[in-house]
Amino acid sequence: MSKIWGVENLVLSNVKKPIPKDSEVLIKTCATSVTTSDVLIRRMNEISIYKS
After folding, report:
1. Which of 10, 46, 16 is nearest to 31 (CA)?
2. So which domain of life are we looking at (predicted)?
3. Dist CA 33 CA 27 (whole Å)
4. Per-residue pLDDT of the chain (52 residues; tens, 9 = 90+)
5. Are 9 and 3 in contact (CB under 8 A)?
6. Distance CA 22, CA 17 (A)
7. What are phi and psi of 48, to 5 degrees?
8. Are 18 and 26 in contact (CB under 8 A)?
9. 37: buried, middle or exposed (CB in 10 Å: 19+, 13-18, 0-12)?
10. Residue 4 DSSP label
11. Can you tell me the distance from the alpha carbon of 27 to that of 29, in angstroms, rounded to the nearest whole number?
12. What is the DSSP string of 13-35?
């Protein structure tokens, strides 16, 4: 990994839940990761579609 994207640059911190103002909304965000195996599985599905 490069220094820009390296694990050593990740920072975990606790922050207070923001309170939206009257003209704002609070949006909950969920995140996930994509691994090499996810990419390979998706490619296998694409290849099988083209073979048919």
Report:
1. 10
2. Bacteria
3. 20
4. 455 666 777 788 898 999 999 999 999 888 888 888 877 777 775 555 555 5
5. yes
6. 16
7. -65, -30
8. yes
9. exposed
10. T
11. 6
12. ---PPP---TT------------
Overall pTM surpassing 0.90 (yes/no): no
26 in Cβ contact with 20 (< 8 Å): yes
Distances in Å between the alpha carbon of 17 and those of 26, 27, 28, 49? 9, 11, 10, 45
Burial class (CB in 10 A: 0-12, 13-18, 19+), 49: exposed
